[in-house]
Amino acid sequence: MATFLGVSPSRTVKVRMVEDELLNGATRMTPGAMLEGDDPEIYLGSSCLEPDLRQYILAHELGHWHMRAAGWSLPHLMEEALAEYLGLCFGPPGYLRARIEEIEREQIEADPAVLYLDVKQLAALAPSDRRRAVLSAFALARRIGFQRIPELAAAGRTSVEELHAAADL
Ligand SMILES: [Zn+2]
């Protein structure tokens, strides 16, 4: 994963399984959460008791951790899309293909406008709208090229406008 992103892992990260209630006060099945700071930790919720989901979610969260450790500043949903790509790639076989088929089946468009959404705005959306925004960002990242995003991030060319241009829309 570090090789794909072109970053070098400089620190260790702790991974903990925790009760879902400890993950941002969540009350339902939760995937992972990542804390930043001098002593970063990845918290995995009850979904991760299932081995395939654990592999996928842990890879997703490690993706976030690598990107933060490298000091990248991608728009929220672009970082999310790249983390998701890594989760799907390093997750169980077939996950990535299933996601791409889902996007094609539902005719999700790559919409650069979703990159303006921050965490709070995204959380305020209805679940179905949030899901479409996340999938749209994934479609956008795919259009830019997943391997190209780390290059843009390393060069600091990650404004919404620059990503929009990179997608050639
Ligand atoms: Zn994420």
Number of domains: 1
> What is the total tally of β strands?
3
Structural class, judged by helices and strands?
mainly alpha
Q: Going across the biggest sheet, name each strand in turn.
A: 1-3-2
The geometry reads as globular
Kindly report the average pLDDT value: 90
What are the distinct ligands in this entry? Answer: zinc ion
Distance between the first and last residues' Cα: 28 Å
How would you describe the oligomerization state of the chains in this entry? single chain
Question: Helix fraction?
Answer: 40-55%
Which residue ranges are poorly predicted, with pLDDT under 50 across at least 5 consecutive positions?
none
- Proportion of residues in β-strands: 5-15%
**SSE run:** HEEEHHHHHHH
Helix tally equals 8
Query: Largest sheet, described in full?
Result: 3 strands, mixed
Task: Output the radius of gyration.
Answer: 16 Å
Quick tags:
169 residues; mainly alpha; 3-stranded mixed beta sheet; 3 strands; 51% helix; globular; binds zinc ion
Verbal overview:
By secondary structure, the chain is mainly α. It has one domain (2-167). The chain is built from 8 helices and 3 strands, in the order H-E-E-E-H-H-H-H-H-H-H. The protein has helices spanning 2-5, 51-69, 76-89, 95-105, 119-124, 127-144, 148-154, 160-167; strands at 14-17, 32-35, 41-44. Strands 1-3-2 form a 3-stranded mixed beta sheet, with helices on one face. Helix 2 (51-69) crosses helix 3 and helix 3 crosses helix 6 (127-144). The longest helix has 19 residues, at 51-69. It is globular and about 40 Å long. It starts with a helix and ends with a helix. The relative contact order is 0.13. The mean pLDDT is 90. The structure holds zinc ion. Zinc ion is lined by residues 60, 64, 80, 83.
